[in-house]
Design a protein that fits this description.
The chain is an alpha+beta fold. It folds into two domains: about 1-80, Heat Shock Protein 90 (2-Layer Sandwich); about 85-185, no CATH class. It contains eight helices and seven strands; from the N terminus they run E-E-H-H-E-E-H-H-E-H-H-H-H-E-E. Strands 1, 2, 3, 4, 5, 6 and 7 form a seven-stranded antiparallel beta sheet that branches. Helix 2 (about 35-50) crosses helix 4 (about 105-130). The two termini are about 20 Å apart.
Length: about 210
Amino acid sequence: MNRSGELYVNNTEENAAAALTKIDEFIGHQKIDRKKMIHLRLLAEETIGMVKAMTDDFMALMWIEEENGDYRIRLTVKTDMNKEKKSELLSVATSGKNAAAKGFMGKISEIIENGLLNYDNVMKLQEEYGGGYNDYMGMGMCVPGEVQMTGDPLVWSLSKYRSALKGNSELMNGNGSAWDELEKSIVASLAKDVTVGVKKDRVDMAILAR
């Protein structure tokens, strides 16, 4: 596997610029055409922009990896907070101050942030009621249905979300704006798939480039 070094990403302009410089260096050494380079750069920009918009309480590591000609933008987000801090952030979320997620990547950042903050509660409900599926934020986040155990990751994918919107006429009629948002998204148009997995205090995201 060919991969760039891990980049620490936060919400500062200086850090974002340094991360993009390192990403450009990695992309520039790949034997790919200019179109692919531009696509990877755009995906990286969108990912860094998403991290910049997130709260300071999260640390993100980002890198690009290549395997058998496939390129993935990878992001790992961790948080280490006590119950008081978690309750404070949850109260901000429920107050509506951060409820207006703008665009497709805004919703992804909400999946990451709220998934980390609410993981224990979601898993408790999963254990109690089963079913293998939680329509998390209307974005199709689920717990694997075959194994109902404490500690299973919450998993979301762009491909399943897109299929849910396309394959359900009732859902499409009620969420036309969601489909329009998806169609206009740079990431959704340049990625074969996006997967987000949440487990306790960690999120792993992978964007598979076209």
